[in-house]
Amino acid sequence: MPMTIAYKQILDHLTTATVVLSRDLRVHYINAAAEYLLEASGSRVIDTPITNLIMTPDDGLETLREAAETGQPFTRREAELVLLSGSRCIVDYSVSPLSGEPDALLMEIQPRDRLLRISREEEILTQQETTRVLVRGMAHEIKNPLGGIRGAAQLLDRELTDDGQKEYTRVIIDEADRLRSLVDRMLGPRKAPELQPTNVHEVLERVRTLIDAESKGRIELIRDYDPSLPEFNGDREQLIQAFLNIARNAMEAAAENPSDERPMLTFRTRALRQFTIGHHRYRLACRIDIIDNGPGIPEELVQNIFYPMISGRANGTGLGLSITQSIIGQHHGLVECKSEPGRTEFIVFLPLEPQS
């Protein structure tokens, strides 16, 4: 199937990912933008079936075949493609007959992951700020009467001479202290991070050691680190607490794996360049994944998992992940969660350099 030089020159200079397919859905041409997006080498995929390059849902492949047979164009929005590497991406793509080439289809692909992620992160940041305002207001309303109740109980305790009666006032004092402590924990860290050069792998290794000791070796702990990550300014102790909260939840989830598969917990790090977190772009950031093979988090909880007092366990306080989000937020980072049966992934993004 010949292609005119003019078409090829135009496609080579497009920033839009473009693939030209023959009528039997073989890759005839792929431009540089498509090679980058689809993580493929053009020299290796030319004249191979499109299914060797990407996998689409069955209805997507069937629609491609219909377009090849009838010449009718079509467009898909926010479709998920599975790449040869196994990674997935969300894209908009359109397929249409190539003008002047009756045996060719032009497939144009626009990545949507970045836009969807930025939109999702803005929503998460808005939720965080709303939660902080709500918790601060609630803490103020609780602490004021709580202080009065505790003070009155102390005065009453001094007036009483009967030890049996004093036991009741002490219960009031102890419960007031417990509630005050709970409210303080909901507010998160009470001091700003003490920033100093920090190695994220040293933080994760400390967490891994603690989890190994707590699980008594029953959980298989896997490390998949990117050794190129540099040090960054962070509060080591607060970060240990943040990752430990995630890892403990993951450890408990992995232990509940209903299958015969051994409980596993994976710690993974990767470098990200020119990466946007929230509203800011950073020259260098890191992604830390903590992955367990437990039963997964119910879908209705995933979107609210970082709110205070939200927990998927009957004995959970629902504060650990809220505190983690607060600590990571103080480091200008973000925490996300993805979950399906057999795999739950907490993803932490942290900037390693000042925003550009």
From TrEMBL:
Catalytic activity from the UniProt record: ATP + protein L-histidine = ADP + protein N-phospho-L-histidine
SUPFAM superfamilies cross-referenced by the UniProt entry: ATPase domain of HSP90 chaperone/DNA topoisomerase II/histidine kinase, Homodimeric domain of signal transducing histidine kinase, PYP-like sensor domain (PAS domain)
CDD domains (alphabetical): HisKA (cd00082), PAS (cd00130)
GO molecular function: ATP binding; hydrolase activity; phosphorelay sensor kinase activity
Main EC class the enzyme belongs to: transferase
Keyword annotations: ATP-binding, Hydrolase, Kinase, Nitrogen fixation, Nucleotide-binding, Phosphoprotein, Transferase, Two-component regulatory system
Entry keyword Kinase: yes
UniProt-listed Pfam families: HATPase_c (PF02518), HisKA (PF00512), PAS (PF00989)
GO annotation, biological process: regulation of DNA-templated transcription
Enzyme Commission number: 2.7.13.3
Domain (Histidine kinase): residue spans on this chain: 137-354
Entry keyword Transferase: yes
Described purpose of this protein according to its UniProt entry: Member of the two-component regulatory system NtrB/NtrC, which controls expression of the nitrogen-regulated (ntr) genes in response to nitrogen limitation. Under conditions of nitrogen limitation, NtrB autophosphorylates and transfers the phosphoryl group to NtrC. In the presence of nitrogen, acts as a phosphatase that dephosphorylates and inactivates NtrC.
Name under which the protein is recorded: Sensory histidine kinase/phosphatase NtrB
